[in-house]
Amino acid sequence: MTILSIGRTSYDITCPIEEYPIEGNKYLLNEKIESGGGTAANIAYLLGKWGETSYFAGVLGSDDYAEKIKKEFAQVLVKTDYIETAYDVGTPLSIILVNKKDGSRTRFEVVGNTVPTLKKYDYNITPNVIVTDGKEYSASINALNKYPNAISIVDAGRVDRDLLELCKYVKYIVCSKGFAESVSGYKFDFNNSVTLVNIYKRLKEKYPNNEIIITLENMGALYSINGEIKIMPGIKVEQVDPSISGDIFHGAFAYCIANNFDLEKAITYSNIAAGLSVTKMGGRPSIPSLKEVINYYNQKFNIKTPVQEQPKKEEEKPKSELPDIPDPTKLVMPTITEEVDVGASFFGASK
Predict the structure, then answer these.
(1) pLDDT at position 329 over 90
(2) Model's pTM, two decimal places?
(3) What three-state secondary structure class fits 327?
(4) Which CATH architecture group holds 2-20+27-303+338-345?
């Protein structure tokens, strides 16, 4: 599948700390983890790492950070044809402090007074899926109009006029808890299921033609299927660094939708990918491999993959003879079996 990710990028420097700094004190940091960042860029990186034909469209500065980001993309075969260079500004920089005691993080974004946007909208590809982080409104609308048959996904992480408008034109709105609360006017109360239903219904009233998934951090994701509002629980892990777990959820979700997973299986895979990522320090270094996610899924639901039988030992042949060519019809390749219904409902067991 060909997937086009449109949006912003940055360069991230993650610093683990023993406790949050006190103003006026001096601290010695003996560890830092550097990688490219930015929501759409992280999604494109994950998709490349997981074997999809991944394109990223965004703007970089003319500096060393930009070159490092391009090299990272090249390592996972992300196509950089649609990256533009802004020569008058630097690549945005993010400094992330991660508290090793509780896994909380504090992010400082170093950006200029003006943020350059994409100017060229001519693509010579036909994407099957378009993912946007909503920060490049004109470029995103152009792509959605140009490729009406592409599956479209928006990462709705904040509330502004452009993003609210863009949500009307995509198939999947995958939004944050904060976005859902702001748009609905309600607050989540996980001890009162009525608040969750009200939030989802209010969003559905505003966007009746969209599939809506609300990410709830370590609580999982809220969604609707067959008229029933449900939560898919997140996986239980020890949190080390949650810095880009949301981006990883969106990237995994795009992968699953591109590969025709049904909605519940797509959300399950995305929860697993995001959950595994928070167990590692740093941004892109925390992105799990597709194999790790598949193995976790199979173990969680006791799904066994076919095991190839060991060939019988044959008699030794004279060295002058060539070995037999294996019969390709007898080779067994592991495959992922069909999904098990894993949804959890606030109104009783899944139907």
Answers:
(1) no
(2) 0.85
(3) coil
(4) 3-Layer(aba) Sandwich (3.40)
